[in-house]
TrEMBL record:
Keywords: Aminoacyl-tRNA synthetase, ATP-binding, Coiled coil, Cytoplasm, Ligase, Metal-binding, Nucleotide-binding, Protein biosynthesis, RNA-binding, tRNA-binding, Zinc. It comes from Acholeplasma hippikon. Residues 4-675 form the Alanyl-transfer RNA synthetases family profile domain. Zn(2+) binds at residues 538, 542, 640, 644. One of its GO terms (cellular component) is cytosol. GO terms for biological process: alanyl-tRNA aminoacylation. This is Alanine--tRNA ligase. It catalyses: tRNA(Ala) + L-alanine + ATP = L-alanyl-tRNA(Ala) + AMP + diphosphate. Belongs to the class-II aminoacyl-tRNA synthetase family. One of its GO terms (molecular function) is zinc ion binding.
Amino acid sequence: MRYMSSTEIRETWLKFFESKKHLIEPSASLIPVNDPTLLWINAGVAPLKKYFDGSETPKSRRITNVQKSLRTNDIDNVGRTARHHTFFEMMGNFSIGDYFKPEAIEFGYELLTSEKYFGMPVEKLYITYYPDDQVAKEKWISLGIPADHMIPQPGNFWEIGAGPSGPCTEIFFDRGEKYDKRGKELIEEDIENDRFIEIWNIVFSQYNANPDVPRSEYKELPNKNIDTGAGLERFACVLQGTETNFETDLHYPVILKTQELSGVTYTGQMAFKVISDHIKTLTFAISDGATLSNEGRGYVLRRILRRAIKYGRTIKFNEPFLYKLVDTVVEMMESFYPALRQTKEIVKKIILKEEEKFFATINDGEKHLLSSIKDGSLSGLEAFKLYDTYGFPIELTLEYAAENNITVDVEGFKTALLEQKNRSREARSVKGSMKSQDETYLNFTEPSKFVGYDQLQVEAKIIKIFEDGIVLDQTPFYATMGGQIADTGTINGLVVTDVVKLPHGQYLHRIETDSFTEGDEVLAIVDEATRNLTERNHTATHLLHQAIKDVLGEHAKQQGSYNGPTKFSFDINHYEAIKPEQILKIESIVKEKINEQLAVVTHVLPIDEAKKLGAQMLFGEKYGDVVRVVDINKWSLEFCGGTHVKNTKDIIDFVITSVESIGSGIFRFEGFTNEVVKNQDKYLGHLLEQISQLETKALSIDANVKFEAKPEVKGSFNDILNYRLYVQNLSNLVKNLEKENESKLLNSILASADSFTPNEIKETTYVLTNDLPQASLKPLIDVLYDKMKTEVVILINQTSEKASFLVKTKSKDAKAIIQALAKETLGNGGGKPDFAQGGTQNLEALTNYLKGNGLIWNI
């Protein structure tokens, strides 16, 4: 077994599987394309899900890749262990309905043990398998793995909800007794150790998982698949003979640079490892178009950056330093990821800006921490507020606490953090499992031709009828894809409600009738007016995309789009708010290109030639060997399969009606083109109505409020953006007034807390209020509890529609009390032993309960 650089490892992996007739798939963007189930690409198989669930057919049924990946579920272990990372590279080989278990194991054995490839000694390999999977066990043994190196593991079964699933086999490399005197029991008992490193997992995807039945009753997949994942960093650790992944050539250059910048010598400290891992994550994610913000992907990256800074402070960094490491990351990784060089400067700028902001925030956080200390301790709730509001990692809070002899309620912090995670988990309604394969679609391979680029009416033959639609041998209907919605129209006079693309590329026309039979000759007609309107919006977004790049910079990449007959929307990434003057400049460029009457030309050519032309492609999207490129005077060149106008003059007019952040550094442009612009009076009227409503609401809160100058009504769509900006400013004004009013009301309520205190205070005191703001209830019960010095305070606030319950106690069980009250009043509730809350909409049940128990309820 010889030393291999990370570059050699990647090349060996890809060339081996290429020799086994696998198509090399480039690494996809870390930001998933058209997949709302994932926040990040987190495994090699993630960008290939549509092939495995059968919703799309790949160019090759054998694929190999080295996929950059990002996971944060084990972030607290990064730097503590030898192998945990947030950013890592996953090497994989995949079979979509082609070879299966025996061949996959043969490939694995040959690649690992042959001197032509990785040359690992057979005696160093240990293999786990699913106990029922005797085929896998016997295959490994037949190739030369000793029988006593085969370890059955009941957990070796891969499934994530409904969809493809199956047993797996894991490959471990034994680094020897130097790392642990114990033997294979470390694997058998799943004990964390540094001796046996899991380097590869091969999943035999052969069942359609069904959560409603036992695993033994899972049905076989119509197409069995192979899905594997091998960690590049772990291979590097083994083949380079390093103590941990962090001394390999995938991290050590960053650690050496960190050592140089800090003046602190690296001796294995956790801080160096955290910084190296996190700056790689930040560099790759931002390069792929992510930004830092308070939600979604941006929130994840902000936490990662702040965690890196926290550890940086332990090795004498007291000013921005992470941005200085970006050059090293790029130099280390650009041979395989050349796009890093193009985005390097913008990545550095974004990181520096965020670092400056956080170093300033640290001072505010320190002040809040000191002001929150009571009797030499910090509550779990305040510790969580420091974490959530000020971005203070709990480790940083504990560091301050230790320096100042302060105790911190860590358990209370963990409880608050868990509650937040539960809320976030519940808010995600989409699960990450693959869709179940549809065998009827997968088995349908008869070709069908799209002729809609040149014809909007054709005579065709029905070649297949499904329950939800029909397929024609040729069709003029465009299916929904690439941001463009499907054509409307008729087939034999019957309305086509939708058109979708099937796994093998045919178009399924959804049409409500059972009068057709296969073989029928039909007349398919696309609604020309709707198609033309849609084409104008689609071509306009191509102009918009290039105009955005001209104004904001080349880093601004398309993140999504919608092109229909009545409007367009276009999403891009950008690292800061887009200014009104920039929006107007972008709009003016598009208008200029429309007025120049530029020809819109479509080229159909090999993908390599298209790339040489400089055509833009949606990063992470999959393209065939031959692609369509939409060329607008060489100024805008994009890969695109959609339909377009012949000349920019056909767009007629263009206006941006709104630009807003939709989260995680993603901004959405919306607007109109073509005849829709003629509806300007109607749209302006709608905006003026919004303005009137907002101004009325603001005056109802504060009669003396002053408004900025209202845009002049000229009756032109050129003024729509100004109206939208005015509406947005008015909306922000109303929100601020509401907050100020709420704050004043809360202070007033708390100042008069004595008026809510009952004349008679018992062990359990029951307080009844009416029509108080919901936000005031928790602070009020806190004040009342401190004032009354009793065991339990139960606060019920009634409005005309519902009642809210709050219970606070230290000696009783608040959760049990709230649940009992909720049961009696036909409501609901829950919480923790010291504080709980709930409510009911059944005011009659509440009234009856109170009448039956008096004003004070004794437990």
